[in-house]
Amino acid sequence: MHSGEVKADITTKQREGKVALTRMLLPDGDIEDIEDDDGGPIGVLLWTLLDGLLVQRLLDPKSAPSAEQLVAGLRTLAPML
Questions:
Q1: What domain of life does the UniProt record list for this protein's source (predicted)?
Q2: Which structural domain, as residue segments, surrounds residue 9?
Q3: Which residue among 23, 27, 42, 74 is least enclosed by CB atoms within 10 Å?
C-alpha cells in the first residue's frame, strides 16, 4: 500500500471491526478495555477468520467452506481448547 493515509484508515477500521465483533458476543460487563486490546482475543480470532474466508471467497468461491463446514470445524475444535 503506497498511501500512508489509506493504510492508517484501513488499520483504524480493522481495529474498530475487531472491537465491534467482540461487543456483539460479550455481555456488557465483560467488555472493559477491549478498545485498548484490539478487540481482545475474541475480536482478533473472529477478524482473522473473516479475513481468511473473504480471501477464499474472492479467489476461489467454489472451494470456500460453507457455513456448515465452518460450524462443524468449530465444534470439533472447541473440546480441544
A1: Bacteria
A2: 4-80
A3: 27
Size of the chain in residues: 81
Amino acid type, 17: G
Q: Within its chain, how far is the Cα of 24 from the centroid? A: 12
Q: Residue type for 14, please?
A: Q
Q: Which helix (H) or strand (E) holds 67?
A: helix 67-77
* Rounded Cα distance, 41 and 43, in Å: 6
Residue by residue, DSSP assigns the chain as: ---HHHHHHHHHHHHHHHHHHHHHHS-GGG-TTTGGGTTHHHHHHHHHHHHHHHHHHHH-GGGSPPHHHHHHHHHHHGGG-
pTM: 0.71
